[in-house]
Design a protein that fits this description.
By secondary structure, this protein is α+β, with helices and mostly antiparallel strands. It folds into two domains: 47 residues; 356 residues, Cytochrome p450. Strands 1-2-8-5-3 form a five-stranded mixed sheet. This is Cytochrome P450.
């Protein structure tokens, strides 16, 4: 330690003799001073700035329970949010690093939209050289690379593209319905108990395999198929993975030396081989499918993917399984819509089921929601949005205590601001009776409320690129289930849901079980 060397060197230059006890005492003093300088002094930052802050422990900061794997980051920021009512923003510490927690909806909208140029980097960064597989993901890159890649990929997620892949996802949702029909019929009067978290992960796996790669995965019927196993391994909430993700996300300075990759070698190898095999097969026999992967092949041939010059949430009905009236109203709207379209469900007809949108948005507000699909974006419901101040011009935040008061904060370049999505979606000042599942909150009239803030897919230029695909999956899954079955709570699921602290995406620890029965006509 430099401080220890300096102390010993200084004493030696004065001609003093050193014994073992002297060196030990000096070392302890040096360690104590280093502890004060790096672990305690930084915690005075917010007091010196005159900004209200959340309690912080030396070294571990305000996120000690995250470091000890007692709570997820979303739970911790949710606690901070409700500990500081009435504030526009507060300070907290990630370890010794001063960080801002934004609470005011208008400030949040400004950061994500109007003032995006000041916050155009996600806080999480991955070394592209050390981890090529993840480092070139749209979520992790910034600046011109991000702009070019976003521009190139966006057409693949347009409304027109969603219409073209509608039959592909529709076929997977048909498989889901057939599988459940078989299981529910076999279960008889007692009903079929199913974990929606696992079922929707399998549905999403099959949808992505079909849309992205043109592959028939069939994990709905066989949950141990290799494609599903590798996808599960990617985000499996084990202690080992939790430690790895924690180091990558919260301690990047350590990972510069450890060089831990976000995705394990065997998972990388599997999906790399999948891509290479699909490309080779299509090149060999001239196959051209109307899927997302074909579009990527074309972009690659045109040189547009050379830009070097990225769970699955819990399943459908988690909340409305406890609300039979909501199910019945939704079922009637679905049936009426299909009847108007000569007994078929078209892409346009699906978009016209207004109550379906309201139900899905009501589910998504809770953070453990409907089959949301691949996370092409930052997991909004799962992890809070964290942006880094990047502009050379300082950014001003007004007084956190209220409008018209003197004082405020000039953000230093590099400071991180956190947007606590889960807290915002559960604030009774924004959503009265926030724990109530109420699709009517999201009716066209109620959505005009300018105070409300709803961010399941983020907002602004870095809003989820895959939101349309996620919604398409969710809608088709819900229609397949609700139109055929009655859902009710199962005793295996405890309310409130226990969040898994090992999962860096907000997710229930013990699954989300419901009982399905055939509708009685």
């Amino acid at each position: 330690m430099l401080l220890n060397v300096l102390l010993i060197g200084t004493m030696s230059s004065l001609g003093l003799q050193w014994g073992f006890s002297d060196i030990l005492i000096t070392s302890l003093i040096a360690i104590f001073l280093a502890f004060l300088w790096y672990g305690v002094v930084p915690l005075t930052y917010w007091k010196r700035k005159g900004i209200p802050s959340v309690f912080a422990l030396p070294v571990l900061g305000s996120t000690a329970k995250l470091a000890l794997f007692l709570k997820s980051f979303g739970q911790i920021t949710n606690d901070m949010y409700f500990q500081t009512p009435g504030k526009k923003y507060v300070g907290y510490h990630r370890f010794s690093q001063p960080t801002i927690l934004l609470r005011d909806p208008e400030l949040i909208k400004n950061v994500l939209n109007r003032d995006f140029v000041h916050f155009d980097k996600n806080e999480l960064q991955i070394d592209e050289v050390g981890d090529v597989f993840s480092g070139r993901h749209l979520f992790f890159i910034n600046g011109e690379k991000w702009k070019r890649l976003r521009m190139v990929l966006s057409p693949g997620f347009s409304s027109g593209k969603m219409k073209s892949i509608f039959p592909i996802v529709g076929e997977v949702s048909g498989n889901l319905k057939a599988f459940l029909t078989e299981k529910v019929d076999a279960a008889g009067e007692r009903g079929y108990a199913v974990d929606l978290k696992d079922l929707c992960a399998r549905f999403t796996t099959d949808s992505v395999a079909s849309v992205a790669f043109g592959l028939q995965c069939d994990s709905i019927y066989d949950p141990e198929v290799e494609f599903r196993r590798m996808g599960r391994k990617l985000l499996e909430p084990t202690l080992f993975n939790a430690i790895m993700f924690f180091i990558i996300i919260e301690m990047p300075w350590i990972n510069r030396f450890l060089k831990i990759n976000f995705i394990s070698k065997d998972v990388k190898s599997f999906f790399r081989n999948v891509v290479l095999n699909v490309v080779a097969k299509r090149e060999e026999d001239g196959t051209k499918l109307n899927d997302y992967f074909q579009g990527l092949i074309q972009l690659w041939k045109e040189g547009k993917l050379r830009v070097s010059e990225k769970p699955i949430d819990d399943g459908p009905g988690g909340r409305h399984a406890h609300n039979p009236k909501v199910q019945e109203k939704l079922r009637k709207e679905i049936e009426a819509n299909i009847k108007q379209n000569d007994g078929t469900l078209t892409y346009e007809a699906l978009q016209d089921i207004a109550y379906l949108d309201m139900v899905i948005q009501g589910e998504s507000k809770f953070g453990v929601s409907l089959c949301r699909g691949l996370k092409f974006h930052h997991s909004i419901s799962g992890r809070d949005v964290r942006r880094r101040a990047t502009s050379s011009k300082r950014y001003y935040l007004p007084n956190p205590e209220g409008e018209g008061l003197d004082g405020g904060l000039w953000l230093e370049k590099g400071m991180v601001v956190t947007i606590p999505i889960y807290g915002l979606h559960h604030d009774p000042e924004i959503y009265p009776d926030p724990e109530k599942f109420d699709p009517e909150r999201f009716s066209p009239d109620n959505k005009r409320d300018k105070q409300a803030i709803y961010l399941p897919f983020g907002d602004g230029p870095k809003m989820c690129i895959g939101s349309r695909f996620a919604m398409l999956q969710s809608k088709l899954a819900v229609v397949s289930v609700v139109s055929r079955f009655q859902l009710s709570p199962n005793e295996k699921t405890k309310v409130p849901i226990t969040i898994d602290p090992f999962n860096f995406i907000l997710s229930s620890k013990y699954g989300q079980w419901v009982t399905m029965k055939n509708l009685k006509h």
